[in-house]
């Protein structure tokens, strides 16, 4: 409005009626451009929304490490494996300086006897209640921490079920996620083992390979296929259409850019990328006829 008004006035002063018409048009274009830029940040609310997003990201970040600390201490003391896992998380997220100290403080707070798991997780649920993909990733991160030593202890399973419940995730879906992660862990180990085996074979002549080793390779391939299907949440009877559908759904849920836009802290994008890479690897293995 002000662009049109001022443009008309200045146009009339310098060019009478023709100048006024030209000034009105230029003022209109200015108002239109200004409105578009203003709307992009949500008008006056854009400033508060940006602050709100930052607060939600900080909540996700601190709560995530606090719950990780609580799970790590669930058997009475934090094992060296869990400390290494937490450190690996921080390294993977490239946390340095004050950000790393903040993660360490949150992890330590979760180990305290007065830490409220219920309150911490419910705060996350209230902040991200309509963003199920983020809530699911939060749970998956906790599962990864608990599974860092290769198995889930009974007390860890109890805590994970509580986290799932407070996040509003059903028991059925919780079991589905647990099964998927266990398959993902197994598939990753099998890929590493297969890579090592191929490196060893490359240094030997083919005619030295025994028949029993060939049978072992066939068995490993069958197990890997079963694991790859389980990573996508599928049974061994799944067909090509079901595999593609499951893959697309999981990739959508774990897409890093999508999760960051919903409130995932930028530092944690690497975790989402890693999840996507595991899903991609399983799908590519199945596509190649694994």
From TrEMBL:
<feature type="domain" description="J">
    <location>
        <begin position="227"/>
        <end position="290"/>
    </location>
</feature>
<keyword id="KW-0997">Cell inner membrane</keyword>
<dbReference type="InterPro" id="IPR007791">
    <property type="entry name" value="DjlA_N"/>
</dbReference>
<keyword id="KW-0472">Membrane</keyword>
<dbReference type="InterPro" id="IPR050817">
    <property type="entry name" value="DjlA_DnaK_co-chaperone"/>
</dbReference>
<feature type="region of interest" description="Disordered">
    <location>
        <begin position="188"/>
        <end position="222"/>
    </location>
</feature>
<keyword id="KW-0143">Chaperone</keyword>
<dbReference type="Pfam" id="PF05099">
    <property type="entry name" value="TerB"/>
</dbReference>
<dbReference type="InterPro" id="IPR001623">
    <property type="entry name" value="DnaJ_domain"/>
</dbReference>
<feature type="topological domain" description="Periplasmic">
    <location>
        <begin position="1"/>
        <end position="4"/>
    </location>
</feature>
<keyword id="KW-1133">Transmembrane helix</keyword>
<comment type="function">
    <text>Regulatory DnaK co-chaperone. Direct interaction between DnaK and DjlA is needed for the induction of the wcaABCDE operon, involved in the synthesis of a colanic acid polysaccharide capsule, possibly through activation of the RcsB/RcsC phosphotransfer signaling pathway. The colanic acid capsule may help the bacterium survive conditions outside the host.</text>
</comment>
<dbReference type="GO" id="GO:0005886">
    <property type="term" value="C:plasma membrane"/>
</dbReference>
<dbReference type="InterPro" id="IPR023749">
    <property type="entry name" value="DjlA"/>
</dbReference>
<dbReference type="Pfam" id="PF00226">
    <property type="entry name" value="DnaJ"/>
</dbReference>
<protein>
    <recommendedName>
        <fullName>Co-chaperone protein DjlA</fullName>
    </recommendedName>
</protein>
<comment type="subunit">
    <text>Homodimer.</text>
</comment>
<dbReference type="InterPro" id="IPR036869">
    <property type="entry name" value="J_dom_sf"/>
</dbReference>
<keyword id="KW-1003">Cell membrane</keyword>
<feature type="topological domain" description="Cytoplasmic">
    <location>
        <begin position="29"/>
        <end position="290"/>
    </location>
</feature>
<dbReference type="GO" id="GO:0051087">
    <property type="term" value="F:protein-folding chaperone binding"/>
</dbReference>
<keyword id="KW-0812">Transmembrane</keyword>
<dbReference type="InterPro" id="IPR029024">
    <property type="entry name" value="TerB-like"/>
</dbReference>
């Amino acid at each position: 409005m002000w662009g049109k008004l001022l443009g008309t006035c200045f146009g009339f002063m310098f060019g009478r009626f023709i100048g006024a018409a030209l000034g009105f048009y230029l003022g209109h274009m200015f108002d239109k451009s200004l409105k578009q830029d203003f709307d992009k940040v949500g008008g006056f609310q854009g400033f508060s929304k940006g602050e709100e997003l930052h607060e939600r990201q900080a909540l996700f970040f601190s709560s995530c490490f606090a719950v990780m600390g609580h799970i790590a201490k669930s058997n009475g003391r934090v094992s060296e494996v869990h400390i290494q896992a937490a450190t690996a998380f921080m390294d993977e997220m490239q946390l340095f300086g004050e950000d790393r100290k903040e993660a360490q403080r949150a992890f330590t707070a979760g180990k305290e006897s007065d830490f409220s798991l219920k309150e911490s997780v419910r705060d996350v649920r209230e902040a991200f209640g309509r963003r199920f993909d983020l809530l699911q990733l939060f749970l998956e991160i906790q599962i990864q921490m608990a599974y860092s030593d290769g198995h889930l202890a009974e007390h860890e399973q109890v805590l994970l079920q509580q986290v799932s419940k407070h996040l509003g995730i059903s028991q059925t879906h919780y079991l589905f996620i647990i099964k998927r992660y266990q398959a993902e862990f197994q598939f990753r180990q099998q890929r590493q083992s297969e890579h090592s085996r191929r490196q060893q074979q490359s240094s030997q002549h083919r005619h030295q390979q025994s028949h029993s080793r060939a049978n072992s390779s066939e068995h490993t391939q069958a197990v890997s296929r079963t694991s790859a299907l389980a990573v996508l949440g599928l049974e061994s009877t799944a067909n090509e259409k079901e595999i593609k559908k499951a893959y697309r759904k999981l990739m959508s849920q774990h897409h890093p850019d999508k999760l960051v836009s919903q409130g995932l802290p930028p530092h944690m994008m690497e975790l989402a990328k890693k999840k996507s890479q595991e899903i991609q690897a399983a799908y590519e293995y199945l596509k190649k006829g694994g």
